[in-house]
Here is the input.
Amino acid sequence: MNGWRAALLILWLPVVGARAAPAAPAEPAGRTVVARAGISMDQAVRMVERRFHARVVKAETQKDDSRTVYVLRLLNDSGKVWTVRVDAADGSVQ
Here is the structure.
């Protein structure tokens, strides 16, 4: 009986391990480089949502004179929609 349990455990561990630690999704190459250079888009979204007390409803990355800029569209509770630009290198809001 112990041999049977050991065999079952050996066969079951890879299945449990695969469920417990799924592989991280691959990020686009440009986004990885930008994250190392300054702030990531996720960080920019969190920063802008806190600063303006609004929700980001659309986010995209643009090149502006060889600089990477995150263009974020915001929506607040009263229904106002506006766009802000965040410099990916230093996090400044334009």
Remarks:
- The first helix runs from residue 2 to 20.
- Residues 10 and 56 are 47 Å apart (CA to CA).
- The chain is about 45% helix and 30% strand.
